[in-house]
Amino acid sequence: MRLIIRDDPTAVGEYIGNYIAKRINDFKPTPEKPFVLGLPTGSSPIPTYKHLIKLVKEGSLSFKHVVTFNMDEYVGLPKDHSESYHTFMFREFFSHIDIPPLQVNILDGTAKDLIGECNAYEARIKEFGGIELFLGGIGEDGHIAFNEPGSSLSSRTRIKTLAYDTILANARFFNNDIAAVPRMALTVGVATVLDSREVVVVVTGQRKALALSKAIEEGVNHLWTLSALQMHPWALIVVDEDATAELHVKTVKYFKSIERVQEEVEAMHAALREQGVEEQVGSME
Amino acid sequence: MNGLICFTNCLLPREDGSLIQQDLWIDERRGVILDAHRTFFLRKERPDRIIDLGGNILSPGFMDIQINGAYGFDFSVYDGDDGAYREGMKTVAEKIVETGVTSLVPTIITQERSLYPKILSLLRPFATPISANLLGWHAEGPFIQLAKRGAHAPQFLVSATEQFASFEAIYGAENLTDREDWLMDTVNDGEVGVRIITAAPEIDGVMAAVEETVKRGVVFSIGHSIASTDIATAAVQRGARLITHLFNAMPQLHHRDPSIIGLLGASPHLSVPMSPNQLVGATTPMSRSDSLKRRLKVAEQEGPKAVSEAFDDLLTPPQTPIFVHRDSELHLQKGKVADMAFERPFYELIVDGIHSHPNSVRLAYSAYPEGCILITDAMKILDPHLRDGVHEWRDGKRFVKEGDKLYLEGTDTLAGSVVTLDKCVRNFSRFTGCSLGEAIKCATFNPAKCLGIEDRKGTLRPGADADLVVLDRKGYVQSTWVKGKEVWKRTVT
């Protein structure tokens, strides 16, 4: 696992935006072989979306041949509700980029058969050959997607009851009316995320500091579902300074040092590629 | 290309007068504004054509609900040739778009009575593929007050002794049928059509005709009138929902009898529900019949005078009468105003800096911003390309145009307006200090709401007609779109 530390959320967004852009461009996606990208909602990824939009408007990135899968959606909230994740994704990202609507996949929380919807979602991800890169964020309790504390680390896409913490945190989007916050969501599972070839997680702000520490400095634990990332062969966490507040100084220093080494390794690999050596998947770990 | 357009990098005026940075999607073929969210997630489409507006404002097209003519054509002049009249309508409709106007209500001043049925039947909703929409008609007169006749011919003014039947006799019964019937044999399905009558409620029989007029789907507007406060209030209670060119052709604001202008400050205390059958006059607790009688007497004595509408006023009314004492509980919510028995009427303002002083404009807007409607009341010589100087009018009379001022030759009598609506919007923002978005609202959403067509015109709601105007940050028109097509574009000079 790599941990990248940047000064503030904007710098984090720029780093991840550039990173994803490079991955998509290097992939050289085509209609037959699209780049499959997993996407989150919430406030943490907004700077990343802003930067990606800027790259698209500048012409250095296109989503014409990108297929997206979103992590989750509330159950029972109409798609055009102002707080639905359909609305969020359209407002913050999809309306500003060039992605064809048919290549956008978001779980339908208004489906009659919710279990069927979840199973079809997993099947559709498989149809595209799995997710190339899953971008994620975390909650204050360390949840990734709506995989709240105690979720099985081998869970797949399914119906999930929201933790009370999450309901409280989301009440601000529903006029502070706790009764109006949906109680259930459809979400990809921890295993769905772990199945993707690469996982990139954005963690910003001091309120997420404890979750970050639990996820990377302690063992794999279903009470902090992000910690399952420790089992993933190619994971990247990008954080701001505030989010490192609960980490050991030693941890921070270690990850800062390996970022430098990583750059050297990447330069070396680029040189190898030019000589015609096939690139390997994975990080330097 | 899928025929969808996305306007991006622009500010959109919202119905509350604010401006928001947001894209707008339209369907060029159907000529309507799209719900972008539904288009994306349900139709699974996104616009192939993207237009970057460079930070400009994308507003609903302007709406002018009182305009007498433009580009040399006078809606009030019919010389027996239907073809020539229609050609005139076409000229105005196609040229006016350069002023940002995409909808207008042609206005005819008082006519010789035999002309009404003919002209009104010609003024059906009309548009060409590259023109603004003529929405119907606005008949100003002939049921108006002699003392406040302005430029209307005195010999054609009449009273409505037969009440609504008099209206039908003048305008033609076929022109006053129920809205559905009136629109039926017109144009395409779902076409918008509106009718407005400006009349003075104190004229014999007019008050009794208000309710039936409104019932037929015609907007009743109070104007060219010396109605006292109680008469004006009663007219609103019967359904009048507009005041024609506020401040002009009506008594000036007198604090003891604020008359028509006073409706903008209508007090909840006075608007106790009246029974519709209750006669205006002595029985109302707020009777002002004395002051009205005095006005009428003065009007009779002085007779018709060709003077400016705004500056002939009458005696000081007697002291404010004492109203019926009421003793209900007072409400305790700061910022709330007690319920009114009626909605205050919309009011038209000519914001050329001449017909109303900037202070008066601000005063009216501060009193009731939601009712403010900008109009040009323009004469046929309205044409932004026309030079200052002397121009022909009619009956051998001539105009002198000096900027936005228009006089009858040899007099200092204001002969009407030549201001364009886009200039009114800019003036209004300066005069009142309001934002450009709030000024735009007074030329788009407010008039549409007054006419009851705010689901189709004067708005950027999904499903509304894609009638749009692009303005720069100074309020100058850059391009105009009607039904999803660009019909005018500023050429760089």
From TrEMBL, chain A:
GO terms for biological process: carbohydrate metabolic process; glucosamine catabolic process; N-acetylglucosamine catabolic process; N-acetylneuraminate catabolic process. It comes from the Eukaryota. SUPFAM superfamilies: NagB/RpiA/CoA transferase-like (SSF100950). GO terms for cellular component: cytosol. Residues 8-220 form the Glucosamine/galactosamine-6-phosphate isomerase domain. The keyword Hydrolase applies. InterPro entries: Glc/Gal-6P_isomerase, Glucosamine6P_isomerase, Glucosamine6P_isomerase_CS, NagB/RpiA_transferase-like. Keywords: Carbohydrate metabolism, Hydrolase, Isomerase. It catalyses: alpha-D-glucosamine 6-phosphate + H2O = beta-D-fructose 6-phosphate + NH4(+). One of its GO terms (molecular function) is glucosamine-6-phosphate deaminase activity. It is an enzyme of class 3 (hydrolase). Pfam families: Glucosamine_iso (PF01182). Its EC number is 3.5.99.6. Belongs to the glucosamine/galactosamine-6-phosphate isomerase family. HAMAP family: GlcN6P_deamin. Catalyzes the reversible conversion of alpha-D-glucosamine 6-phosphate (GlcN-6P) into beta-D-fructose 6-phosphate (Fru-6P) and ammonium ion, a regulatory reaction step in de novo uridine diphosphate-N-acetyl-alpha-D-glucosamine (UDP-GlcNAc) biosynthesis via hexosamine pathway. This is Glucosamine-6-phosphate isomerase. The lineage of its organism: Eukaryota, Fungi, Dikarya, Basidiomycota, Agaricomycotina.
Automatic annotation (TrEMBL), chain B:
Its EC number is 3.5.1.25. Residues 57-487 form the Amidohydrolase-related domain. CDD domains: NagA. GO terms for biological process: N-acetylglucosamine catabolic process. Keywords: Carbohydrate metabolism, Hydrolase, Metal-binding. InterPro entries: Amidohydro-rel, GlcNAc_6-P_deAcase, Metal-dep_hydrolase_composite, Metal_Hydrolase. It catalyses: N-acetyl-D-glucosamine 6-phosphate + H2O = D-glucosamine 6-phosphate + acetate. GO terms for molecular function: metal ion binding; N-acetylglucosamine-6-phosphate deacetylase activity. Pfam families: Amidohydro_1. The keyword Electron transport does not apply. Signal peptide: none annotated. Belongs to the metallo-dependent hydrolases superfamily. NagA family. PANTHER family: N-ACETYLGLUCOSAMINE-6-PHOSPHATE DEACETYLASE. This is N-acetylglucosamine-6-phosphate deacetylase.
